Amino acid sequence: MAAVKIFTTRFCPFCVRAKQLLDRKGVAYDETAVDGRNDLREDLLKRTGRRTVPQIWVGDTHVGGCDELYTLERSGRLDELLAAD
């Protein structure tokens, strides 16, 4: 299974929803909280063009945020992405 990395903040409802989907699917993920970490937010901006959370990677693929994660799930493509290694 591909490694999943998610950047979050503690009180972000979109972060909670994204993690709930991954939890329901039994997907382990590496979570990095960016609360009060402008350096990490700047890194996200450089890597993705966004400072918002969540920002999610499956393997080397940048999925985007919560909406994009759920779009992948509805299309069936999330399982394919997770299965790639």
From TrEMBL:
Family from the record: Belongs to the glutaredoxin family.
Listed name of the protein: Glutaredoxin
NCBIfam families membership: GRX_bact
Function description: Has a glutathione-disulfide oxidoreductase activity in the presence of NADPH and glutathione reductase. Reduces low molecular weight disulfides and proteins.
Record keyword Iron present: no
Pfam family, one: Glutaredoxin
Domain Glutaredoxin, residue spans: 4-63
Keywords: Cytoplasm, Disulfide bond, Electron transport, Redox-active center, Transport
Domain of life from the UniProt record: Bacteria
